[in-house]
Structures are given as structure tokens and as C-alpha cells.
Amino acid sequence: MTMEVDILELSDRSAKFVLSKISTSFANGIRRAMIADVPTLAIEYVNLYDNTSVLYDEQLTLRLSLIPIVTDVETYVPQAECDVCGGVGCPACEVSLTLSAEGPVTVYSRDLISSDPKIQPADPNVPIVELKKGQKLVLEAIAHMGYGRDSVRWQAGVACGYKNVPIITIANCDACGHCAAECPKGIIRLEGAGAKVSEDDVLKCSICRLCEQVCDIHAIKINFDENAFVFTMESDGSYTAKDLALNAAKVVKGKAEEILSILDQF
């Protein structure tokens, strides 16, 4: 059985698609991989040379660590897995970003100067701190590759979730309108022959079954496909939504191959 993918919506930061002919465990594996297992660049250490802003050093460092950074997975590797330096830190697993500003000015993520032109904050308009007249901020931030399972700073996938594809069956409807009034998604409409749900609106169903509960003649039945799932996902900008989904699939594939290689030894 070959998995099928149907793209419903796709943009740089978000996507909605249907995965069919898969199990629930595989669907959840993809979701977890997007959130926790795709390596991402994030600021981990900050060398502060001058900070006379209103923020304590710790507060400033926390804000910097949560700024999403565009990630090049082909160039950089997680620090703990770096064969070049053994995890000490080198150009293969870390990037330096510097910042120097003096008030009065609002410092934004775009003011971070990266040592690698390809590695930049995913959103240039993230406010870091407002400097008043005479206040200064001079620092060097070190970004490392890491995993979302270790810290939220490395979590590239946000709002990643899925549900089973709904199946709505309507038969012998008397057009009383109770189901349409009860539906929280507003996808049930009344026609001369009774209640109807268009094909385009079926995927909007939340499978709450409120319409089924208020139907006295049991004309409407709500079920779901156990092997088909509607995915919705967003990226924080470290990857495009497409690249994040593809890298998540590669992670799941890599783990499966690793398990097979281990089992082959016995």
C-alpha cells in the first residue's frame, strides 16, 4: 500500500494536506518529527560586552534564543554530532551573530549581523529591546544546531496537528434544520431534499457529532477514515513549510532504517 499525499494549501510558513493509506502511528511520527526531531539553528550562547538597557543579561539572552533563524541543514550539523570538532564548536556546527547599537533606538532582529550571509533571522522585525538615549548594547551571539526535543528554542514546527478525514452520511432527511443549526462549523446547508454537505466542506468537519446527536430520526451519521489524515502545520521560518515536512519525513525514514539495521544484527 503506497501512501498518498494531497496538498490543500501551501505557503512559505504554513501548509494543509491530506495523507492517505497510512497508520495513526505513522501520522503521529510525522507530527512529532516536525516539532521535535528536525535539527534547527538557534542562539544558545551570548557574549555580552556592554548592556546598559533596561533588560537584565538573562532576559536579553532568552529573547535572543527565541528568535527563529533560517537554517541550512546541508551546511550545518547538530553540535553534539559534529565530527569536525567533537562538539566543541566550529564553523560546521555554529554561527556567530554580532550586534552593536546605541540609543535612542529600538533594536530589531534585523540588526543582528551574521558571519554567514545565508543564515539570518527568519523575521527581520522581531523587537529585541528599546534603548533610551545613552544606553548601549554590544554582544556576540553563538547559534548552534539542535533539536526541539531538547529545548523550545530549536522547535521549528508550531501548531502541527492532524485529524482523521471525516465521513458524513445523510439519508432520509426531513429537512428539519436542527443539524444545520447545531453545527459549529456551519458546513451543513438545507436544500429541498434535506441537509447537504459539499465535498469542499467535508474536511472542515471537526467530528464533534453534535449534528448526529440532535437528529431525532438518525438521518445523519458522522464517521472517519482510520487511514487518512488532514494535517495542518506551521513553520517558525527556520524552514519553509514544504522543507520542514520533507525533512520530518526523512527523519522518520532514517529512524526506521536504523531500527532495521539493528535488528539485522540478530
Automatic annotation (TrEMBL):
The keyword Transferase applies. GO terms for molecular function: DNA-directed RNA polymerase activity. It holds the Pfam family RNA_pol_L. Its EC number is 2.7.7.6. Its cofactor is [3Fe-4S] cluster. Coiled coil: none annotated. [3Fe-4S] cluster binds at C205, C208, C211. It comes from the Archaea. It is found in: Cytoplasm. Binds 1 [3Fe-4S] cluster. Gene3D superfamilies: 3.30.70.3110, DNA-directed RNA polymerase, insert domain (2.170.120.12), RNA polymerase, RBP11-like subunit (3.30.1360.10). It catalyses: RNA(n) + a ribonucleoside 5'-triphosphate = RNA(n+1) + diphosphate. Residues 164-193, 195-225 form the 4Fe-4S ferredoxin-type domain. GO terms for cellular component: DNA-directed RNA polymerase complex. PROSITE patterns: 4FE4S_FER_1, 4FE4S_FER_2. Keywords: 3Fe-4S, Cytoplasm, DNA-directed RNA polymerase, Iron, Iron-sulfur, Metal-binding, Nucleotidyltransferase, Transcription, Transferase. The keyword NADP does not apply. It is an enzyme of class 2 (transferase). Part of the RNA polymerase complex. Belongs to the archaeal Rpo3/eukaryotic RPB3 RNA polymerase subunit family. DNA-dependent RNA polymerase (RNAP) catalyzes the transcription of DNA into RNA using the four ribonucleoside triphosphates as substrates. This is DNA-directed RNA polymerase subunit Rpo3. It comes from Methanosarcina baikalica.
